[in-house]
Write a structure and sequence with these properties.
By secondary structure, the protein is α+β, with helices and mostly antiparallel strands. It folds into four domains: about 90 residues, conserved putative lor/sdh protein from methanococcus maripaludis s2 fold; about 80 residues, Elongation Factor Tu (Ef-tu), domain 3 (Beta Barrel), CATH 2.40.30; about 55 residues, RNA polymerase II/Efflux pump adaptor protein, barrel-sandwich hybrid domain (OB fold (Dihydrolipoamide Acetyltransferase, E2P)); about 80 residues, Helix Hairpins (Orthogonal Bundle). About 25% of the residues lie in helices and about 35% in strands.
Length: about 350
Amino acid sequence: MKKVFFSLAIVSLFSGCSQNSGGPAEGESSAHRWVQTTTLVEASDSFFSLTGTVKARHEVELAFQVGGKIDRRLVDAGQSIRKGDVLFALDLRDLRQSVVTSRARLKAAEATLELAENEFSQDSQLIEQGYKSRREYQRTLLALKEAENQRDAAEAELSQALNALDYGVLKSDSDGFILDAFGEPGEVVSAGQTVAKFATDAQPEVEVDFPSDLYPPESGELIVDGVAIALKRREVSGAADPLSRTWKTRYAIDQKHPGLRYGQLVKTQFRDSQPDIPLYKTKISSIDERGETPLIWTVDNGETLQISISIHKIETEYAWVSSPELRDGLEVISLGTHLLKPGMAVRPVSEREI
């Protein structure tokens, strides 16, 4: 009896499997996968942005040409100055004393020279009269030349002392702007030690660092308060920086803007270099990078079709790509591209009946 019931149960199980293994219900299809799509947009005029720094064309580190103790500081950071304005002054007492000492040495040298000239004049007369030998005449001549050299050295020493006294007062060589001031009264500084940073009163520029694989373009735009100001490349470093791997580039600003300040970070934008084929803007999620080259998937007669692409730029949500097979308005699969295979049966979600 148990064997009969067991046999009936097996028959019933297979009968149920046969019914469930049949085709899909009428009006439904499990042979395709629903996919989300997006439309490609041609975007040949694409731009990329970089952060720049407002710089003066000529920035100079100011320093004394002589060492000493700072006696006066007459400027502050951010101050505009005119040519000839006194910026700093050293304690000049030692420098003035050097001038006094040098003048005294010059007078002594001049007196020695005068004595040597008189002796030489007398010896010249005596040698003509035969009262002195030629050897004594040569000694007098050498003494005269030595006195002349000492006089010349004393004059040079006095000139240096006067220059040092003049260097003890640091003046502006041109109109400009004090970017920063470091020296303080009472501080002892050495010759060449920076006491202030100075910018000439000229049109500011923008300094931008470009990645080493992107040579700086000749022109661009500076964005200030929503206004685009033209930029023109003035100079670019002769070689990429070995540490940062960037090209340091200076751009001249086409027009002045009152909102620009030295050292300010600003936004710049530049046009992408144009390839031989147009660029298309698409969502990043539509790019499949499983293979050796990035891909985009599209729907061709109900099946997936892969297209190899080149990526030119990526931002937060979108990428700019190119391929000879792309066209404006092409529908591409925008989600789940990592699950796709060539020839899969798919249908866009937009075709689903609500």
